[in-house]
Design a protein that fits this description.
Layout: H1 2-17, H2 21-33, H3 35-42, H4 45-62, H5 67-90, H6 105-115, H7 117-137, H8 139-166, H9 174-202
Length: 204
């Protein structure tokens, strides 16, 4: 259980603090309408991600028994994490985006997340396979991973909204940049684990 909880917490934090469409929307709504609207945007993945997770699990369940396909998927997941790690390691600060003109933060956040390829790629290539592995251990491990992921994904974006509402310079500060570097190393380690799992499946 602890292993899957740590994996969920780490991957959720990395996704939460990495620049992307929803990240920009949280900042924009916070700057224009205040921290409450930023928080509403931050929690929008709870609406959009549930069907994405179920679709990913159904897809992976249909692939059970096809070890080469699962192995290839693990390798693709490793490449995705390597790309995310590279982005975290090279980030040099984030410019605050133009402020949004209207609230509707929860709806806007849900639309941005649903139309972005990032959650689909993550849950098919990374999160879904981890859930499949967790299922073999028990549903408590599945819950530990998913709960850990969303605690830090949503929590980090809420913290982002609170910090940006107090200081626009936070995104260019050393604390944020240092955290991004650490998460880049963590993502690199998870990428290696997926590569290893993919190689083992491809050789079976």
């Amino acid at each position: 259980m602890l292993v899957f909880a740590v994996a969920g917490l780490s991957l959720g934090l990395s996704a939460g603090i990495s620049p992307g469409p929803l990240f920009a929307m949280v900042i924009s709504q916070t700057l224009r309408h205040g921290v409450t609207e930023g928080v509403k945007t931050a929690i929008s993945p709870l609406i959009t991600d549930i069907p994405i997770i179920f679709l990913s699990i159904l897809l992976l369940t249909g692939m059970e028994g096809h070890q080469s396909l699962l192995g290839l998927l693990s390798v693709c997941g490793g490449l995705l994490l390597l790309y995310m790690a590279y982005g975290s390691l090279k980030v040099g600060g984030v410019e605050t985006p133009p402020a949004a003109t209207e609230p509707g933060s929860l709806t806007k956040g849900a639309l941005v997340n649903a139309l972005s390829p990032h959650p689909y790629l993550f849950w098919i290539m990374v999160g879904g396979p981890i859930i499949q592995n967790a299922r073999s251990q028990g549903w408590i491990d599945v819950f530990s991973f998913v709960a850990g992921f969303y605690v830090t994904l949503i929590g980090s974006k809420i913290c982002l909204a609170m910090l940006v509402s107090r200081s626009r310079g936070f995104l260019r500060g050393q604390a944020y940049l240092g955290l991004m570097k650490v998460m880049g190393v963590v993502l690199f380690a998870f990428a290696l684990l997926l590569f290893n799992e993919g190689a083992n499946l491809l050789m079976k």
